[in-house]
Design a protein that fits this description.
By secondary structure, the chain is an alpha/beta fold. Helices cover 43% and strands 14% of the residues. Strand 4, helix 6 and strand 5 form a beta-alpha-beta unit.
Amino acid sequence: MVMTEERFRLMTHLFSDTEKLAWLRLIRSENVGPITFYRLLEQFGTASKALDALPELARKGGRKKKIAICSKSDAEREMTELAEIGAEVIVRDEDSYPPLLSHVEDAPPVLCVRGHTHLLKKKAVAIVGARNATLNGCKFAGQIARDLGEGGLLVVSGLARGVDGAAHAAALESGTVGVQGGGVDVIYPRENASLYKEMTLRGCVIAEPKLGTKPQARHFPRRNRIISGMCRAIVVVEASPRSGSLITARMALEQGREVFAVPGSPLDPRAAGTNGLIREGAHLLENAQNIFYELESLKNTPLNERKYQYFQDVKTTLPGEKELTEARKVIVESLSISPVCVDEIIRQCQISASVVQTVLLELELAGHVERHPGNMVSSII
């Protein structure tokens, strides 16, 4: 049953603690990423039922050893440890979840939140940039953050050194959210320890990975999609041509967000990325008024509202085993290491959508297929 957002919000109280724990268990289970998580909910209605189905799905996908499913005790331990540091879990279908982030196809089903959760509901702009930023770059980022905060906007960044730290520090009075690459309890870099503490007391820190996760390079693109996904616009202050800030800008464009870039000297490598963004069509940023003006012009053209699905009301008829057996070989042979759209698989293989989606779930849980945004999949064998 597809529901309007208003109707959905009236029913959010039906989201039980038991099902919330099941959501945490499901996303912490092996080979279950955000997109697969939502496919499982579409298929089985609840996270609890999806958890029960994981072993058989993985086996049918060709997995030899037992898939690792997050136990109830492990999930309860994580919830308890979060509570002990004044943090909590929020899930995508709760009212406290960042509203714009919920529009993103691969939005985290679960976020760990430490600090003032109410800030997540504010209209937000991200400020990102070089870790080895110039003094002028940090000063400018701080001024933009301060002006945006005074104008009622939330400032979001990645709690890194350089531009991120300057933006957070300047926006503490008005409200700021830091998105961690590791666990919500892991301070990184260590030099930002005092800023992190201030953020937990006066702002908010959020993270997708479980507690204690040390940030690694592969975590940061996933973090960046959250930074851009939470915001209506992002500002890039300084960035080299290979900067992670440019990844954030690219994700913002894919998510339909506005991108602003600060121009700089062509003699400074840290301006190469921002100057390139401007050449490619990003808004040239001189002051915060540029952002307010653009957002004001967009207020009558909001992002498309996500269609909420109250999964517990789903009545799905699963494909029969004979149909699935006939389809598996055909679908596997259609895959390669280059991502392909699921709709293309359905069209080329002449197999029903429900059968294709079920087989792809089996293959992913077995570790043979990888999901990508844009309804794309690729083989990893």
